[in-house]
Amino acid sequence: MIKQRKDINTLSAGELSDYIHALDILRARSEIDEDDPTGYAFQAALHNDGFVGPCEHGNDQFLPWHRAHLYYFEQLLQGADPPRTANVTIPYWDWLHRETSGKFPAAFGGPGLFKPGRNVVAADLPPDTLIIVTGEMDWNEFGGYPKGSPTGDYGRLEDGPHNDMHGSYIGGDMASPNLAARDAIYFSFHGFIDLMWSEWQQRNGMPPPTSPTADLRGFLTQTLHKVQDFQRTTGLGYEYEYTDQLKAAFAVTVPAPVKRSLVGTERLRSLSEGGLEADLQEKEWTQFAFPPVSERAMATMVRLQDLRVPRGGSYKLNVYVPPQQRALHQGRVVRRPLLRRLRRPVADAPWARGAR
Ligand SMILES: [Cu+2]
Question: Which domains does the chain possess?
Answer without folding.
Answer: 3-250 (1.10.1280.10), 269-343 (no CATH)
